[in-house]
Amino acid sequence: MIGTPYWMAPEVILLHEKDTISYDTKCDIWSVGITAIEYSDGQAPRLSIEPTHVLKLIPISRPPKLKNFYSRSYYYNRFVNGCLKFRPEDRPTATTLLNK
Question: In sequence order, what DSSP letters do the residues of the chain get, joined into one string?
Fold first, then answer.
């Protein structure tokens, strides 16, 4: 497995458990969402959890949210929430993110 666990999309983790799952550039959109949370909150979500545990947690948990989402703009929240859709097909493309 290649990648940094805290920024890893669920489908990337699941790929190593099931051979039928694949991933594409939508996993990078997930990582952008995690980076946006890190930028806003000062650290990535779940950093207090050991990497081996976070790899088990990400595929079975709800996507993380901004800590102080009320103090962020509607558009920033929409950006983060869009990036962190659990199902890759529900995430926007990079082009869509840049145009909104």
Answer: --S-GGG--HHHHHHTT-TT----THHHHHHHHHHHHHHHHSS-TTTTS-HHHHHHHGGGSPPP--TTGGGS-HHHHHHHHHHT-SSGGGSPPHHHHHH-
